[in-house]
Design goal:
Distance between the termini of chain B: 36 Å
Number of strands of chain A: 12
Order of helices and strands of chain A: EEEEEEEEEEEE
Strand content of chain B: over 45%
Order of helices and strands of chain B: EEEEEEEEEEE
Structural class of chain B: mainly beta
Shape of chain B: globular
Oligomer: heterodimer
Distance between the termini of chain A: 41 Å
Number of strands of chain B: 11
Largest interface: A-B, 28 and 24 residues
Largest sheet of chain A: 6 strands, mixed
Largest sheet of chain B: 7 strands, mixed
Radius of gyration of chain A: 14 Å
Radius of gyration of chain B: 13 Å
Number of helices of chain A: 0
Helix content of chain A: under 10%
């Protein structure tokens, strides 16, 4: 079974600075999908960014970008020019592309991000 | 507007009672999921369904049951066999293809005393 590990329970950043959230995963599959979700205090889950494992190019969405290292099974999220509205719990998630785990999304434990003004 | 509706937002039950959490969607998504969220443990998959009248157990299905009689609805029943039912429950949907992101409802907070 796949596992997703977020080793940083909490992180903090100053407004306008850059922060990187770590995520590693364990899988024997070669094709899969990775996601970062954000959960603000409202508890509404919001997609931040996604990455297909077969793509070597790192995904970018405005101030959010990933560093995808397939061999190292690492998928970190970089938030540039941090804003107060970025404060939330961030979850890394893995989705299998086939086999008995097809369609299942496995989440990490989450990282609480605090943004200081 | 298209979306996912979970009701109620807060639910209180006595120990030993079954309770059903509602999840309705009008996104026309094929796949629906139930996740449980506990502090420090992220989201854990309870059950999921990729098509009407079919569903699969997730990682923590014991003490839960579901049905998928129509595309729009995927209710979750928390039975008295679930040992620690107090949690935040999230329903999600997607198109049923791998690069499709999950869309989440606003969740139901269940408290059992």
């Amino acid at each position: 079974a796949q596992t997703v590990t977020q080793s940083q329970p909490e992180m903090s950043v100053q407004e306008a600075e850059t922060v990187t959230l770590s995520c590693t995963y364990d899988t024997s599959e070669s094709d899969y999908y990775l996601f970062w979700y954000k959960q603000p205090p409202s508890r509404q889950m919001i997609l931040v960014i996604r990455q297909e494992a077969y793509k070597q190019q790192n995904a970018t969405e405005n101030r959010f970008s990933v560093n995808f290292q397939k061999a190292a099974k690492s998928f970190s999220l970089k938030i540039s020019d941090s804003q107060l509205g970025d404060a939330a719990m961030y979850f890394c998630a893995y989705r299998s592309s086939g086999g008995t785990s097809y369609g299942k999304l496995t989440f990490g434990q989450g990282t609480i991000l605090t943004v200081h003004p | 507007d298209g979306g996912i509706t979970q009701s109620p937002k807060y639910l209180f039950r006595k120990e030993g009672q079954n309770v059903t959490l509602s999840c309705e969607q009008n996104l026309n998504h094929d796949a629906m999921y139930w996740y449980r969220q506990d502090p420090g443990q992220g989201l854990r998959l309870i059950y999921y369904s990729q098509i009407v009248n079919d569903f699969q157990k997730g990682d923590i299905a014991e003490g839960y049951s579901v049905s998928r009689e129509k595309k729009e609805s995927f209710p979750l029943t928390v039975t008295s066999a679930q040992k620690n039912p107090t949690a935040f429950y999230l329903c999600a949907t997607d198109l049923g293809i791998n690069n499709s992101p999950l869309h989440f409802g606003n969740g139901t907070r269940l408290t059992v005393t």
